[in-house]
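Example record used in the benchmark description.
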Amino acid sequence: MRCKDASYKWILDRGQIIERDEQGQPVRFIGIHHDISERKTAELALRELTQQLQKAQEVAQLGYTYFDMATQKITWSEQVFRIFGLNPDQGEPTFKEYLKKLHPQDRTIWQQRLTEARQGVPQSFDYRVFRPDGEMRYVNARLELEVRDGEVVGIFGTEMDITDRKTAELELEQFFSISLDLLCIADAEGRFRRLNRAWETSLGYTVEELAGRLFLEFVHPDDVAPTLAKMSDLEHGDRVLKFVNRYRAKDGSYRYIEWLANPCGSLIYAAARDITDRIQTEATLRANEEKLRSLFDLSPLGIVLNDMQGKFTEANPAALNITGYTLAELNQLSYWDLTPSEYIQPQNRQIQLLKTIGRYGPYQKEYIRKNGDRVPVELTGMIVTGADGQQYVWSIIADITERKQAEAQLNEISERLSLSLKSGAIGCWEWNIIENTLIWDDRMYELYGVNPESNTRLVYEIWSTGLHPDDREASESLIRQTVLGQAEFDTEFRVIHPDGSIHFIKAFGLLLRNPEGNPEKMIGVNFEITDRKQAEAQLQSLLQESQAKSQELQLAYRELQETQIQLIQAEKMSSLGQLVAGVAHEINNPVSFIYGNLTPTLEYAQSLLELIQLYQDCYPNPGEEITDFSEEIELDFIIEDFPKIIDSMKNGASRIRDIVKSLRIFSRLDEADLKEVDLHENLDSTLVILHNRLNGGGVNAEIKVIKNYGKLPLVECYIGLLNQVFMNLLINGIQAIEERQKFDLIDLNYEYVGIITITTAIDASNWVSISIKDNGIGMTPEVQANIFNPFFTTKPVGQGTGMGLPNSYQIVTKNHQGKLSFTSAIGVGSEFVIQLPCR
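Model output (structure tokens):
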């Protein structure tokens, strides 16, 4: 309704007809006008607010729900329908239908949260729903109870579509997890709140080990103060911090970490990167730069840097020494100023090569020094790009003055060598191992009897096929060993000329290797030694003939010596035999006389003693003179001792008779005929003669003799000679035991008993063996090697001739065609075994 002031107000009319006319038409109307302008304004405002709220919910993707506890009905706002992808005209779903739209894994969670909400606990949680088109959306739900008069009448909730946020979070989480850099979030105290897995790879800690730990706890002690100073910049308004410190790894080592940190509210977001390798690489590069600078300064080769116009910009001391300029002076010049005119064209070619392939050389030229002298140099170089982006030329300059002088000397030596080779008829060769080609000079072709060939591979075939078949394998083997570094090539071989003649060649070779140490080629010389070989063959033939004659003479001389020794020994033994036989005969007569009269003497003495006893019985009281004389001569002792004296004389005479018998047996030394004899009898005779030595001779301990005689037939032999062998072997055994007795006496070994064991037997081959074994001092290997050599003795001068065992060996082996062997060991003793064939 329009007001007087032309404004409009909202009016609420209520009225009633109170009077009508005859036709029934209203005549009078009564009513009330109520001004509802304020309410209308409020309604409009509420409608507008509602529209704004709906718009806000739509923008925020936020809706609300209400669950009526009494009716179990769910009320949704329009935005909730949008979130679930449903048409509001279809109405809200039932609670059961609602649960089916949730993700299967979230249904139980939703029901648990609803139960907790009914218990008065406000809820806020996320869950997933499926729209009819299959799309999954993330929803955040908040639930609170509506209580009236102390009774829960409903549950009010909000539903917010957080799909975009969740997607962003998942993408961020994926980025956080796969990032190779170290990512972390720390609180205001500097404690780690979240870290990615890159920390485990870089520092070795697990994320769980770092969570909640202080950031500064792992900083190197020397870097803590700088790190704190850098972090204090956050208080001055810096939004992004960048710094480097050392961070302790799990193994105790420290890694260089570069940080970027950005504060946001009460949290600090940081990204870090392990730059340890970069730091180490930079340190290595700096060290290499220092080394390169040192090499540059100390290099004996000149090193210069020129721009592309040739102007010098850098030069090391060696280059300055070569040119004679100072660095300041050289920087005012170009290489054209140092190049003689005759080298300009070659230098232009090198510059063109440099521009084409980026490098030049090596090539040789001359430099004009500051003093005007010329110096020969060799140059090589390459293009480099400088820090300013410009191209420069690095060049290495070698002063080859000494090389040029050496080349001149080498040329002179080469000419002289060529003359020497020609005059000495020496051939030179060169074998390229890699290409398997062989180069000969003219003399080499002459040595192999072929015409010169230009094909170097064919030359190798000529050499290989020209070798004598018997020398080919050895020559090729020596070449392989030389290439492998296992031998030197210094050999002789034969070659067969096309005409069939055989020539001897002497060859020397030297192996040359490349800078990597691999075999590259061999060079060498050949010269013919056929004449020398023929002369050597003749000399060898003469030498062999002379050696054969010499051996024959030596053998004849040795046999003559042995014969002379045997004759002398035989003569001695013959004289000794005659002497012994004569002495034995002379001794035998008086001994027989004494031995024959001992029995009558004993009988006479017994008769006289019986007579004296009879006188004593008949005249018990003889005269005083008889009594005194009886006491003076000790008659009672005489009566008792006289028979003993006679027995002792009888034993002595018997011993003399045995010795005489043994001497007579041993005196057969001069018997020259073979006779059958009892070897045991001769062994016993020898032992009788040595009885005094075996008893120790009053000086040494007695030596025990053990006889293990087997049953032997009579043996046909030269018994006189064999008796010498028995005597020599037994005396040697006695002397060995006496030597050991001396040492045992020094060592106070009183338990030692010297023993000589004589064993005889006959074997299945009808050979008689006589073993004479002692437990004496034994022989050293050196003595054993020489005991059968004439004149070899271990005894002092004058105590041995050194002929006993050599003669014994000759007697057994030559006179009897037997064998004489021995075994011996120091401290154990020796055993000699004589083996004789039974005839």
